Fold this sequence. Notes:
The structure is a homodimer.
Chain A: H1 5-8, H2 10-18, H3 24-31, H4 35-43, H5 52-64, H6 71-78, E1 83-88, H7 95-107, E2 113-118, H8 123-134, E3 140-143, H9 150-158, E4 163-166, H10 186-199, H11 202-208, E5 228-233, H12 235-248, E6 254-259, H13 264-277, E7 284-287, H14 292-303, E8 312-315, H15 318-330, E9 340-345, H16 348-352, E10 356-359, H17 362-377, E11 388-391, E12 394-396
Parallel strand pairs in A: 1-2, 1-3, 3-4, 4-5, 5-11, 6-7, 6-8, 8-9, 9-10
Antiparallel strand pairs in A: 10-12
The structure holds a DNA duplex.
Amino acid sequence: MEIPRAMDDRRVRHKARSSARPTQKDIAAAAGVSQATVSMVLNKAETPSVPDATRARILKLAGELAYQPNHPARTLRNARTMTLACVIPDITNPFYPGLVRGLQTIAAPAGYDVLIYDTDGLVEGEQRAINWLQQGRADGVVGAFFHLRAPDLAVLARNTIPVVRLESQNKARGTLPIDSVFIDNTEAAAAMTRFLIGVSYTHLDVYKRQIPVVRLESQNKARGTLPIDSVFIDNTEAAAAMTRFLIGRGHRRIAMILGEFGPGQRRALGYETVMRDAGLATDFITDKTYSAEAGARAMQSLLAKGRKRPTAVFGANDMLALGAMQAAQAAGLTIPQDIAVVGFDDIPTAKLLGLTTVRQPEFELGSLAARTLIERLQPGGLKAPGKSLELKFEIVERSSA
Amino acid sequence: MEIPRAMDDRRVRHKARSSARPTQKDIAAAAGVSQATVSMVLNKAETPSVPDATRARILKLAGELAYQPNHPARTLRNARTMTLACVIPDITNPFYPGLVRGLQTIAAPAGYDVLIYDTDGLVEGEQRAINWLQQGRADGVVGAFFHLRAPDLAVLARNTIPVVRLESQNKARGTLPIDSVFIDNTEAAAAMTRFLIGVSYTHLDVYKRQIPVVRLESQNKARGTLPIDSVFIDNTEAAAAMTRFLIGRGHRRIAMILGEFGPGQRRALGYETVMRDAGLATDFITDKTYSAEAGARAMQSLLAKGRKRPTAVFGANDMLALGAMQAAQAAGLTIPQDIAVVGFDDIPTAKLLGLTTVRQPEFELGSLAARTLIERLQPGGLKAPGKSLELKFEIVERSSA
DNA sequence: CTGAAAGCGCTTACAG
DNA sequence: CTGAAAGCGCTTACAG
């Protein structure tokens, strides 16, 4: 058996013994140069100030020692973690893996790691993610926040951690109070938020009591200078289109199932508007979560209405719709003959089960968010005003309606 | 409107202006103590050496300034990232989100972030993850490696980054060459691997040529001292059980669809053993990936056999099985009357589509892996020998077979 | 052109 | 009991 060269090298053997990773200092000692010179040679494509022979020696040693730069040290020195955070309700909701994949596809080649935070759609979970992020664990954040608003996120933006929000806006806004939350005096709001977070969680209590704390600072409604971008589809219009589709199919009693917080609110608005304009009564079933279990529960309560039950059910997401479908089938009903069911998201399973739904381009949403974030992270990128990036949705007709 | 106390504080306002996060130094300056004292007070529950008044002043200032420790600085100083890496083929494969969730559920309360690396089941992707990890980006790794073997991972273990492997072993081993890969001379192998990685990717070429490079170092088959743990179900026995189930149902022509690399190999072994013992012919269809598309392709080629087509098809994972189901239905066949289909994993969709499958407890797999990793990360934990942790599988009978 | 020093923010061992 | 210094590994501005 041939012994590889490095095995004969005293330095390598020594390193193997010590079991610690080699540093620039080790290379410098072996090459007889300063540690700073090693850094130069390793990082710059050209080093006119270093003799070719020295450069070659350093490079060779780095290879032999399998030198890898210490990432935490670089992070501290450069004030860049090369990490992107992705804050989502729940990775097991099939909508999100595709989004995460889109994120990673852009992030990885650019040298960024991706950190996942699950919030369960809870205000505590979202706040916890923000707190962690304030410790400088990531350079930027892509987040689907059900509870936190611009001023809460301002804490990050102020600390130069750009945020890209998912599903945070409608094209035409102003109808929901949520959209009027813009802060004016950025400095004051930032200090205020910091104060509240630091001293206690008062603002969360305030929030829970449905008193938007931001009002304190947002007398002037001009949009602030926060570099918070949004990547979204027009949820309200999409839900409206789906509702019109159902009405067009002859449905008159259409119920909607949705979660207490999150994108369901905007989707509900689209449904509500179309139903009202058509002179039809709305029928909302609200649950805590967007799960299949919640959908099944909702369907059961809908079926309990007997002959007055709806002829069509609109799940605010596919999980709800799928759970509803299953419950209807379990009750002996045939879809779509006995009852039509439609959803929202177009998760992979929707296709397999023939669910008519609204397609959101999750991969593109994720990759666009990553691109936007990385752009912000470029020198000078932090200064640009927040962008609203809208992607197209699509009604996907399948067999369930 | 009441002005919160902190808004009147000159220091807070100043901080808001500077837009930089406050450090211990800032608190120290404001409190008139040394930065080290601030660190002490902030980190220790009790500081007998610091007067109560001073301590209170520091704590109060930290609150007002909304001080958050700088995570990268802590990481460098403590040599702990408080981050766990999860290396998986593809987060969009529905088996993995549940596993990731299990991981997070244990990791988050313990203070660990979770980093996700997708490898696409490619050797390049796995090697890239290892290289990144060698830069000290995480304290430990949970990984499903399709290609890398113990010696490749030894690079991490040697650098005190513990690894927990998923699906890396059978209960009864020795049948597949894969299981005889244990290294003896740890030091030598580590240096060797480091050498190969540093200088070139020769070892990967060697691997591709099916010459296990580990052989060079593994003359002595005694299991090494590497702290590499495994968390797994008995894939071979599970596949055997499923095959027996199909034979028990009267099937004689049973085909198996699998991916080129990964857990399919072990599952194939179980299928093969049972088929051979029953005097039946095996029928393998191998594709590059474990996707629904691959399953559909495989089913099409199976159906092209006409009257000699199999009566049952065993997908090495649920995605393959679901794709196969869809292709069979698209071809006008009814399941299970015309052809039975079974899978492996029990992803959420399997339930919705009535797929008979092998249930793997993915959440438990993930949480057990996290617990094992965190245990290793405790003082002294690195020394314990690698454990093999087996969880129970379960045959879930549904309507597809 | 060349090499040594400062400093990122933190924790802990150590000197007064 | 109290407070200042060293040092984690790195990059870059700066002095010779």
